[in-house]
C-alpha cells in the first residue's frame, strides 16, 4: 500500500490532471509504472516538461511527510478510480486526482446537502443555518460546507448538535486549520464526519484555493442551499457551479432591506428554488436519493421533536396569531428568553406552523 500511495502522491504533487492520468494509463498500464518513468519517456507520452520533471524527480521530503501522515488510522487517500472515490465527483469538470481525508470516508458517500452563505451573517441567518442543518441531518442528509466563519460554521455545528454527519472541504492542506478559531470544530467534524481537501500537506490557504474548493462542495452534494449572501459573494459562484454541475440550487428569501438577502433573491430570479421550510428541500431531494434516504428518514423520524406535547410550545402558540408580533413582544408575554424563542420559532417555522416576516416579526401560517 505504501508503494501505491507513494505513486499516487508523486502524481498529485506533480499536479497531474485526471485526463492526463487517463492518457498515461493507456500507455503505461498502472499508476506505479507511471510514477517510475523517466522524464523523457513521460514527455514522449505527451506530458509537458514541467510535470514530467516533477514525476521523475519528486520532492522526497514532501513524500515522506505525506506518508507519515497516512500512518494515522483516520487519515486516508481517496484516489480517482477507486471504490472510495465519491461517485458524484466523477461527474464534474476538473474532478480531483485524489482527496486527502481525515475522518470517515463513508461520509463522502451519503446523500448530502451543501449549506453555504455569508462569513458575516445576521443573527437570523446563523439561526436558520443551524436549524436547517439540524433538521436535515436528522433526516439522514450529510451536511457539507467549507469550515468558514459564519454560515458554514453554523451549518457544521447544527449537524453535530443532532449527532449527524458533516463534511468540511478545505482550501488548504489537511494538516492546517483555517480559520484557527475553528480548530475545535474541525476536530469534532473529523470525529463525526470528515475533513477533505485536494491540496497537499503544507499548502497555505491562498485566496484562489477557495473558489477552486467550492466546485467540490457543490459537486459532492445533491443540492446547495444558500442561506444569506450579498450580490457579490463567493456563495453565488458556488451556486452557479452547482447549477452547471446539474445539482439542485435552493435559496432562502429575506427582507428587501437586508443586503445579505439580495444574493439569494438574485438566485431565485435566476431559477433557484425558493425555500421556506426544510421540508421543501426534502421534497425536492427525496426522488434523487431513492430508498437510501427514505430508509434513513424512517429510522430517524422518531427523533424529531413532538412539538404538540411540549408545554412551552403550547404556550407560545396561544400568544401567536395571524397578526404579526415581534420577538421582543413575545419575550415580554411568554417569559421565555430571546434565545429560547429564536430556536422555538424556527422549529415551528420548519414544521410549517409559523411565518417569519420582515422587521423581525412572526405570525401563524395556518
Overview of the molecule:
By secondary structure, the protein is an alpha/beta fold. The protein folds into three domains: 1-71, no CATH class; 106-300, 3-Layer(aba) Sandwich (Rossmann fold); 305-364, Winged helix-like DNA-binding domain superfamily/Winged helix DNA-binding domain (Arc Repressor Mutant, subunit A). 47% of the residues lie in helices and 13% in strands. The chain has 16 helices and twelve strands. The strands form two sheets. Strands 1-2-6-5-4-3-7-8-9 form a nine-stranded mixed sheet, with helices on both faces. Strand 11 and strand 12 (361-364) form a beta hairpin. Helix 7 runs parallel beside helix 13 and helix 8 (151-161) crosses helix 9 (183-192). The chain starts with a helix and ends with a strand. Mean pLDDT is 90; it is low at 294-309.
The structure class reads alpha/beta
The total strand number stands at: 12
Class of the largest domain, according to the CATH hierarchy? Alpha Beta
Q: How much strand content do the residues show?
A: 5-15%
| Overall pLDDT confidence | 90
| Series of H and E elements | HHHHHHEEEHEHEHEHEHEHEHHEHHEE
Key words describing this protein structure:
Rossmann fold, alpha/beta, 3 domains
Secondary-structure blueprint:
Elements: H1 2-13, H2 18-28, H3 31-35, H4 39-44, H5 49-56, H6 60-69, E1 75-79, E2 98-103, E3 112-116, H7 123-138, E4 142-145, H8 151-161, E5 166-169, H9 183-192, E6 194-197, H10 209-219, E7 223-226, H11 234-244, E8 248-251, H12 262-269, E9 273-274, H13 278-300, H14 311-319, E10 325-326, H15 327-334, H16 338-350, E11 354-357, E12 361-364
Parallel strand pairs: 3-4, 3-7, 4-5, 5-6, 7-8, 8-9
Antiparallel strand pairs: 1-2, 2-6, 10-12, 11-12
